[in-house]
Prior knowledge:
Number of domains: 2
Number of helices: 13
Radius of gyration: 21 Å
Shape: globular
CATH topology of the largest domain: Rossmann fold
Number of strands: 11
Strand order of the largest sheet: 3-2-1-4-5-6-11
Structural class: alpha/beta
Amino acid sequence: MIRKEDNRRRLGVWLIGAYGAISTCLIAGVEGIRQKLFAATGLVTELPDFADLDLAAVDDIVFGGCDIREDSLADAALRLNKTSGLIGLDVIEAVRPALDETDRRISRGFVLNSGKAVEKFAATSSLANGAAAAEIIKKIQSRLNRFKESEKLDNVVVLNLSSAEAFSKHLPEYESLAALRTCIEKDEKEKLSSGILYAYAAIDAGFPYANFTASISEEIPAVIELARERAVPHTGKDGKTGETLVKTVLAPMFTARNLKVLSWISHNILGNRDGAVLADSESAHEKLKNKGEALKKIIGDPQLDSQVRIDYVKSLDDWKTAWNFIHFTGFLNTKMVMQFLWQGSDSALAAPLAADLARLLEHAHRSGLSGPQGHLSCFFKSPTGAQEHSFHRQFERLLEYARAETGRNCAPRAGNPQASTK
């Protein structure tokens, strides 16, 4: 997609979980596109529908971030090649200088109430170790500001691509910004998590934020209120990349044909670090809820038997297989069955969507939008600021946004038509 030279903007993308498989594929992939090693397949924002939308160019993305593990991007890429066949050795060799340069911009992350499955991957220095919540927030903000200033960036978007956290509390302190601020000031860390503090820190500092994980984060009312106060756009929760994507395409077909779905059984098996984390029942809680929620809302039948299972199979590495069994009735109460099998690489599916979210959030911020960006719902299992779960309708909303914004002067404007507090 060609961008006018006089409109070029340096977009910083700060990744939480920068050494993870998704981040590694994202950074290597963007550099590969920049070097014209392969096409931008998988990037929604490279579709013709977005050609005239004034997005930051892929070539102008600069990566930074944090991780709780000690690693390097080149080593992470080589492991993906060896275990899963992702990122060819020729590509790794070509993009290695960019990977090494990005390593310089990756700092140590932190862990707070993330659960044993996540904590066992963390370096000792990543643990909260008595640091106050307010102090953690200031450190995150300092790193974000330093990243923007040192790299001479026009804007920074923060993407949470880390593993799912076990923390699944929904507390009264989340219902208002004043209550959450008091909780932070009193250092009531038992009521907080890494996901919440990262979201708070980024948005409070004025940076757009996307939660691609299943962890509790930007969707709580207190953080939404903060985003309104700071005039910052945000989006989440839990990226929709594979099986749930297919579900939200298929389920409306049954309702449109007035076919009664009796049961929809989903069995997922996957490897890699995310699979290992999700093997822990506490870490999998939010993920399972998000995967089932979309289907139930589309079908709209309280009697629907919807079951979701996730099993860790180490040998699969970054590859995931999902089997779905759909039992339904039609005319004359005839019982019928539909089954589908989805097999794909989690990271290769998710990485381009992360780039899309960074570009679209930067555009929304420049356009003066704030709060939950409902037009980005098609990217998520449990979209913040949107009640619609049918993929076709979600995607149409994104296209409507692109059509409405194309050709507009992106100066801040009154109102906030695309955001929603629902």
